[in-house]
Amino acid sequence: MDEHERSEGAPRPLNLAPGTPPVLTLSGICKYFPGVIANEDVSLDVFPGQIHALLGENGAGKSTLMNVVTGLYQPDGGEIIVDGYGVTFAAPDAAIAAGIGMVHQHFKLVSRFTVAENLHLGWSETPRRLSARQIEANARTLSEKFGLAIRPEAVVGTLSAGEQQRVEILRVLSRGARLLILDEPTAVLSPVEVGELFIALRRFRDGGGAVIIISHKLDEIMALTDRVSVLRHGRLVGTHLTASTTPALLVAEMIGRPVTLATSYPRGNEVPVTPSPLVLEEVTARDDGGIIRLEGVTLSLRAGEILGVAGVTGNGQPELAEVLTGLRAPDQGSVALDGVAVKQADPAVFARAGVGHVPEDRLRRALAPSLSVAENAVLREYAQAPIGGRFGFSIVRAREFAQLLADKVGVKLPGAMMPIRGLSGGNQQRLVLEREIRIASRVLVASYPSRGLDIGAIAAMREMLAKARDAGVAVVLMSEDLDEIFALSDRVAVLCAGRLMAVIDRCDADRDRIGALMSGRTQAEAA
Amino acid sequence: MSSSRTRLTVVPTQRILVGRGLALLAALLIVAVTLAAMGRSPITLFGLVMHSTVGSRFGLEDLALFMTPLMLTGAAVWVGIRVNLWNIGAEGQFYAGATAATAVGLFTGLPPALAIPAMIVAGMAAGMAWIFVPAVARAWLGVSEIVTTLLLNFVASLLVYYLATGPWADRVTGALASTERLHVILPDIWGVVHWGFPLAVFTVVVLGVLLARSRFGYETAIAGANPEAARYAGISVAPRVLAVLLLSGGLAGLAGMVEVAGTVHRLQGGIANNYGYLGIVVALLARGSCLSLIPAALLMAFILDTGIVLQTTQISASAVLAITGLLVLAIAVGDELAAYARVKKTS
């Protein structure tokens, strides 16, 4: 592919001095795994002073491509050109030395070290004789130089996700990175933190740096980036100037057909009037560290309706989900399941009563990553015919069951006996969701169900939740995305610092009011 | 421009078999070269080893006798590793099982038809009892089972020395290092090969089928792979950890019973002969498959036999340890290399 052809639709930036090569050029990159084409013939240019988005469905090959660029994988074909010279990165250090730095979705920091210590870890410029004062002063200088506010003496484990991310970015920049790669950086951030991140990224770009950002969130891409490259099935579909494209065009390119997310999901029937399947009364709960995370929460679920739980991440959502599904016993207060008070936290009792749970961290809690798709698929129904019984278990039936589940949600399984960690995050999520909906005859608690899903999968997930609602299930939807909450919910509950600020009917809820409640103002103030 | 190999996350069995075959050949080659460097003829020694193992009836009987306890201790360690629990104490539970079986065989005076089942039950119960405290500590308090089970091995070994040379010592022949011959022993079926051999094969097969086809097998697999997910699914982890470790201890105890009642016929110090530790090697060689314990035990038996043959030709007894280590290393390397596949390009 020659220079002209590659630049079609996305010409060189006009303000770039003639002769200045792109920071990074990929030319015909191919990467294969057995039976899978991860990347094929991917060619793109990343210019200095530009923020470049990489967009694609789950499993489109974005992460593989970035792993090739950062030296974690070796390409099976094609060339990596940095500043006009062909390079081979034998290992990630080589990429860092060439000025390419990556901030991963899961931060790679030592949580018991301070910010300053983390910044100086494994760095050639770290002084031989360490003094806490000196490295903290160094950290402060770096912080000012790159415009990222940090507290050098704070222990990383005590920081919020946004602060940890700033440390990670600062660490990469201090190593002299000229190309910064971010993998879904906003997934773990609150809206305020997203704003701060964008300011920092723009500042880095205006100083001549280049950024590649992987994201599913189209509005962020439109707001932040200068150009967009779309990958589909491992191949580059196109590169555009952000200003001359639209979200609808990008979605169509990404999944091959236009998809829009509905802004409402009208119910198919009337809400049945039945007693509440699950009631919390003045519930106070602590986390594993003994810190109070929920305080005096009173909440009554209604059959056949979706209750959206809005709130900035880390305001008691995980503990609320755990109390609702029997994983955590309340410290004070009571939980009534179908009108019967529950004494002990016993997830088995809740599951038998028809409570399904899509947890926030599916790999840690809802799946056994090293076991097969079949074994994971039957986690809720292994003790029932035809898969098992009081004593028996049939792996053959489990395999058939997994295939059934996968067909239902449109996941292509290479084989039901492969370890489930081999599936993409989006496909794991779809299987978990379907598995839980099957048993959720009364209540379904879904925590951040759209996290890591592409837009097509999100649309399908929302349809599934709406269908469960129409079937009379009380659905609890926790989400950081207010659009999602507004689109699906019948009532909106707002959590702030472990307290339930209010439960509002959808028709009375608007963005400003919910936003005010999320930031801790009381209902009277917010109204 | 670069390597076109990739590491497979799931390695097909065929690749593993080829990798291990090559590893065995490599290990054999290194042993041969070492022997040649010592001035011995590898070919003569190889002939001798072959004759004394698979090449003669006497050799085959010996292999079967070695395999019997190895299959059972291998199974004992294997059921633990399957769910991420490491019973390093099969040696101690072996001693406990042998001691309990000896007590039944010496002091109860039951007729053989009752005594043998009683010895089996006593041997397994003693193995379970020996692992009970480490198992409870692991299940409910999270105390590492590796350390506790290992330390109890030394207690068991010394206890058997004490019994065999002290209170239970043979007063009749005056051979102070062992008890007298058991009054009831496992009958022989083929030369010196006794009923313990089919019993061990049967145990391994039943264990494999049961774990694959039972709810218990599934629930323990989940609890072992991700305890958090097990809790989420309403499976209590601690009772299942206890059950698996007790099963493991029971199998090692059974191995001790079979050894004392079938092969040695008296309790003596050192009767476990490292079978408990070698069980770890057997279990690792078998990887995920229970039935593979049988060929793995055969291979280990072959190495033990080879060691004895080499000793008769004035080669140090440490050769067995060296060859075992070499083999395990070669197989680990073979397994790893088998995971690397050349990538077929589609273009």
Which short descriptors sum up this protein?
heterodimer, A: 527 residues, alpha/beta, Rossmann fold, 4 domains, 6-stranded mixed beta sheet, 19 helices, 20 strands, globular, B: 347 residues, mainly alpha, two-stranded antiparallel sheet, 4 strands
Major sheet: arrangement of strands of chain A: 6-7-8-3-9-10
Low-confidence stretches of chain A: 1-7
Would you tell me the overall average pLDDT of chain A? 86
CATH topology of the largest domain in chain A, what is it called? Rossmann fold
Question: Strand order, biggest sheet of chain B?
Answer: 1-4
Count up the helices of chain A: 19
Percent of sequence in beta strands of chain A: 15-25%
Q: Structurally, how many domains make up the residues of chain A? A: 4
Total of helices of chain B: 13
H/E topology pattern of chain B: EHHHHHHEEHHHHHHHE
Structural shape of chain B: globular
N-to-C terminal Cα separation of chain B, in Å?
16 Å
Tell me what you see in this structure.
The complex is a heterodimer of chains A (527) and B (347). Chain A is built from 19 helices and 20 strands. Chain A has 527 residues and is of the alpha/beta class. Chain A has four domains: 3-99 and 178-255, P-loop containing nucleotide triphosphate hydrolases (Rossmann fold); 107-176; 278-368 and 436-526, Rossmann fold (3-Layer(aba) Sandwich); 371-418, no CATH class. In chain A, the strands form four sheets. Chain A has a six-stranded mixed beta sheet, sandwiched between helices. Chain A has a six-stranded mixed beta sheet with strand order 16-17-18-13-19-20, with helices on both faces. In chain A, a hairpin with a 2-residue loop joins strand 9 (227-232) and strand 10. In chain A, helix 14 crosses helix 15 (425-439) and helix 15 (425-439) runs parallel beside helix 16 (455-470). Chain A is globular. Chain B has 347 residues and is mainly alpha-helical. Chain B has a domain at 67-288. Chain B has 13 helices and four strands. In chain B, strand 2 (188-190) and strand 3 (193-194) form a beta hairpin. The model of chain B has no long low-confidence stretch (mean pLDDT 90). Classes of the chains: A alpha/beta (527), B mainly alpha (347).
